[in-house]
Amino acid sequence: MAKKILITGGCGFIGTNAASYYLKKGYKVISFDNLSRPGAKQNLAWLKKQKGNFVFIKGDIRDDKKLLEIFKKYKPDLVLALAAQVAMTTSVENPRYDFEVNALGTLNTLEALRNGYPKASLLFSSTNKVYGEMADIPVVEKKGRYIYKNIEGISEKYPLDFHGPYGVSKGTGDQYTIDYARIYGLNTVVFRQSCIYGPHQFGIEDQGWIAWFCNRHILDMPITIYGDGKQVRDTLFIDDLIRAYDLAVKNIKKTRGRAYNVGGGPNFSLSIYWELADLLEKISGKKYKDVSFSNWRPGDQKIYISDISKAKKDFGWSPKISPKEGVKKLYTWISQNKNLILSAGVFKPR
Length: 350
Known about the structure:
By secondary structure, this protein is of the alpha/beta class. It contains 13 helices and 16 strands. The protein has one domain: NAD(P)-binding Rossmann-like Domain (Rossmann fold), CATH 3.40.50. The chain has a 7-stranded parallel β-sheet with strand order 3-2-1-4-5-8-13, with helices on both faces. A 3-stranded mixed β-sheet has the order 14-11-16. A two-stranded antiparallel ribbon has the order 6-7. The radius of gyration is 19 Å and the shape is globular.
């Protein structure tokens, strides 16, 4: 019998790529999504055209009864808990909604696992925002980027310090997921992810910044840089992330109950404007035309780079696809799907 995977948020950017990957591996893929995010309907239409055993269920992780029914009915071998409210600004504007999706929704998913089919392995998509501003770490300003003064990256040993409603709600889900392994003996794993990008990403200004920059460059739209553009993030192409999911689950006896920082690490980092803009201009052969700078946004980290050595040690993973290669793949996909992106209503061309 074919293995089964349940993906909450299954029509989002990561969910769509994961669904495609597991369909190709012969899994029965159950995609659960409320289709509220721009691009989700377009991703669903694409997934329905793929070969394999694909099931779509429209629903919301705030609906605990629906989740429990799905776990009992499908008995998934693997669960990717990807459904989330993803924007910091939305969390500040509507903290209750943010809590209900990210904190309560994650608890609902874990309870459905515990009471519906506790044999399954579950991987929760967390965020590096659980570490807060990390203001105590010395940072040095260089031409075009910031660097850490004394370290290469942030490890899982760094103290948690939830900032903003989004950081608190995702941090809550993060800690619940770890504790359900400890208290209930479930096979749960946390990935604290950093700047994932790739095809099927309908980037918005608050989330999916590489796709956002690509969109606006391709469509010749103005760009506003908050801060000086030297902020650095480690970037991870989607194929490398899905491979990490697969390896972590294959090594579940080692990984269960643990959290892993998963990003590009020191070698795959970019400053959000100066280095990315240079890369995009080389890929496209055209210059950015309409760029302006504005004030720093509250809580914006000058630099975040993941220390990914724990993932390598525990399940033999490290990223392979460089920003130069990965951004070109994303740029090509967006160039070939401009009308699809515009139809999602992310923005309108001028």
